[in-house]
Amino acid sequence: MRHVDVYVDQPSCIELHVQETVRLDRLQPTADGYVAAQHGALLAPGVTQVPLEAGLYHFRTLEDAQLRVLAGGVRVVSTGGNDDDKWPRSAGQGPCGRVPTLCVVDATAGAPAGPLAAGDL
């Protein structure tokens, strides 16, 4: 499983290409950590443009995915499910125990950031 945090510092738009249904959550800080609330509808497999206001967002994926920044200020941090992170563990790591890759493309800069594999930050 790949955990993806999306830090947005100004109104932005991303394009997310996923191979499975994905829930995008907006995280609100609290005294005890964060509270997740679903942001919009579930994202169906395929390509979806998602407008985002400033804030912190999170999603998980079992399949390879691509995130393209179309406009605004977005920073992406991604970890594999085996990493020592703050998210609860799940039963699976994706097909055959493989950690999926995430390719981040910043269309505002014009060049791909490249795929993120297990352990990349």
Word description of this protein:
This protein is an all-beta fold. It has one domain (2-116). 0% of the residues lie in helices and 54% in strands. It is built from no helices and 10 strands. A 5-stranded antiparallel sheet has the order 4-3-6-1-8, with no helix packed on it. A 5-stranded mixed sheet has the order 5-2-7-9-10, with no helix packed on it. Strand 3 and strand 4 (33-38) form a beta hairpin. The chain is globular, with a radius of gyration of 14 Å. The two termini are 15 Å apart.
List keywords for this structure.
10 strands; five-stranded antiparallel sheet; globular; 121 residues; disordered C terminus; 0% helix; mainly beta
Structure at a glance:
The protein has 121 residues and is mainly beta. Helix content is 0%, strand content 54%.
Count, helices: 0
As for the number of domains, it is 1
What portion of the residues fall into strands of 2 or more residues? over 45%
Q: Quick one: how many beta strands?
A: 10
Structural class: mainly beta
SSE series: EEEEEEEEEE
Low-confidence stretches: 87-95, 116-121
Strand order of the largest sheet: 4-3-6-1-8
**Major sheet summary line:** 5 strands, antiparallel
- Kindly report how far apart the N and C termini lie: 15 Å
